[in-house]
Structure prediction request, 284 residues.
Amino acid sequence: MDKVDQFESLFKSAVKEQFQRQDVRVTSVLVVADGDRDAVKTYADRIRGFLSVLGANVRWTDVSSSEFSTIQDLMDILEKEDPDLVCTHRHVGSPNQRWSWTLGEVLDVLTQATDRAVMVLPHPDTDDAATLPDRDTSVVMVMTDHLTGDGHLVSHALRYTMPKGRLILCHVEDDAVLARYTDAISKIPEMDTDSVTGMLRERLLKDPTDYIASCREGLAEAGVPVTVEADVSFGHRLAKWKHLVDEHDASLLVMNAKDEDQDAMHGLAHPIAIEMRQVPLLML
Prediction:
């Protein structure tokens, strides 16, 4: 490495992305669920209990799936009500609830065709939904493979974390990808495989670790009564996420659902939403 490259590398490594907190306002919530009006209200009341962190000054609107016959009808309702948050469940407005590997057409559209946050909660007929009022958002977990610089994601997670609760910022690097890079490095005679791989592992974990430290420092200086915890590691992502949810007993998972480069849901979001059916998900 020549001196110019060395200097540039040292300069880049010294620059640390700082947490920039965003103002996240939730003044109106739309609940969309299956069932008649009484059933939807009962379900919505459970959600209101679970989301007590939002406070009393929130306008809630409950909508039964029987009130719209097409997705466009629902989009018209969204435009009229203009909610900051949409709360719903898998397969809303669909008879195909037994197909566990899909979220349903309505949710696919809600998460991709609008700029609103969407919370996916347990189906009204499940035991998990019945216990929602007994739970709260005291343990909120951010799930991502690219945490550094994502103040939008962290700020939303913070808004839903109960005072004196735990905000757990998780960043998981895919160990299968690292293994592929290690194999490629091992085939380059000029490189020491163990040394380069070790430095790569350290570098990949350092940036999100430093970013979480800036989140912790920024929120502490602002006097925010939330404990910020870090969990940065390598692993097989989906299996690792399941383990983290159980380990921390997370009550709400927050993740990015949109991908700037494609119309489909963000790569991590869809399998997580499919597999983790017992815990509420906030999809941004």
The longest strand covers residues 166-174. Residues 23-135 form a domain with the Rossmann fold fold (CATH 3.40.50). Residues 3-14 have pLDDT under 50 and may be disordered.
